Amino acid sequence: MDTKEAYRERIKAEIEKWNAEIEILKAKAKKAEAETKSEILKKVEELEEQRDEVERRLEELERAGETAWRELKEGVDSAFHELKVGIKRVSSEK
Fold first, then answer.
1. How many other C-beta atoms are found inside a 10 Å radius of the C-beta of residue 47?
2. How many CA atoms lie within 13 A of 31 on its CB side?
3. Which helix (H) or strand (E) holds 83?
4. pTM of model > 0.85
5. Contact at 8 Å (CB) between 56 and 76?
């Protein structure tokens, strides 16, 4: 089982990886035609909101005591999973 610090570091590293993916999607949007660009940017905005939610929950987890962090971990895991699935979905779209 992860320690609080190891878990936090692992999630932060994943967030950085997803930030890079979001930047790639933004670059893709810049090259796209107007309608496609609008669609991509809307999806990117949604992904950024999901990322912000993961970061918010991670901050809560960081402030939590040793016992409470395990309970908060489920919320972080859930939000992180949604972000991961969303990024994979948007990245795979043509």
1. 22
2. 7
3. helix 66-92
4. no
5. no
